Amino acid sequence: MNIFDNQVAIITGAASGLGLVIAHKMLNEGAKIGLLDLNEKALNEEFVGNAEREELIGVDVTDELSVAKAIDRVANRFGKIDILINCAGITGATNIKSHEVDTANLQKVFNVNFMSSFYTSKAVLPYMLQNNYGRILHIASIAGKEGNAGMLAYSASKAAVIGMTKVQGKEYAETGITINALAPAVIQTPLVDAMPETQVKYMTDKIPMKRCGTLEEAANMAAFIVSPENSFTTGFTFDLSGGRATY
User: Fold this and answer.
1) Given 154, 172, 202, 247, the catalytic residue
2) 15, 167, 223, 236: which could form a disulfide with 37 (CB 3.0–4.6 Å)?
3) With 0-12 CB in 10 A as exposed, 13-18 as middle and 19+ as buried, what is 149?
4) Rounded distance, CA 8 to CA 35, Å?
5) Among residues 83, 116, 87, 85, which one has the least CA distance to residue 18?
6) Domain 8-238 adopts which CATH fold?
7) pLDDT tens track for 156-185
8) pLDDT tens across 16-31, in order?
9) Beta bridge mates, 37
10) Distances (CA, A) of 142 to 11, 204, 244
11) Domain map of the chain by residue range?
């Protein structure tokens, strides 16, 4: 029996990067999944052959009403929601000092990285409360713990995600719902590949292992965090930093 048999998950940012790898891992482990991404074309290209267990939804996760409709669509098709994993994220402009930060860019980063995670969790929690069970995982970042110079918008938005995780973990601790975050250091993703080399070097040099993490390493940890086996940890931010974070 697979660990996610009879479980229904929702994953944002599912068309690429970490969301894509997590989605395939959970599908292989038996989950039914609502796959959300702004790039609906990429979703249809990446997910074939499991139509009976997939609901592909092109959605702007910064639009609260659209998010709520997408969550309802998944719940109506599969009958419940057990798991939410928020992978949608952007870095915004990087390698710039705070006084050079464009306000509109900062707001966009917050909308994608923080507000979308709020919208999705707000929408799924009533479904989880109906069954006294749920697993929510917000993908944060080591930047949210320590702050990366040149990345004000990204670091601050991920710090907000960590703060929300602590609050939600406490609020639902007696309901059978756990809410945790994962704080990776540099993971080799298209998002990282698009960053300036100087910014990536700045971050990688801080990692004692002196390498990026892999998508498979991140997906394996994410899958454990949202599994039934992880039942006594909530409001916590898991480390995935090659030794950079030791607290």
Assistant:
1) 154
2) 15
3) middle
4) 11
5) 87
6) Rossmann fold (3.40.50)
7) 999 999 999 999 999 999 999 999 999 998
8) 999 999 999 999 999 9
9) 58
10) 21, 12, 8
11) 8-238
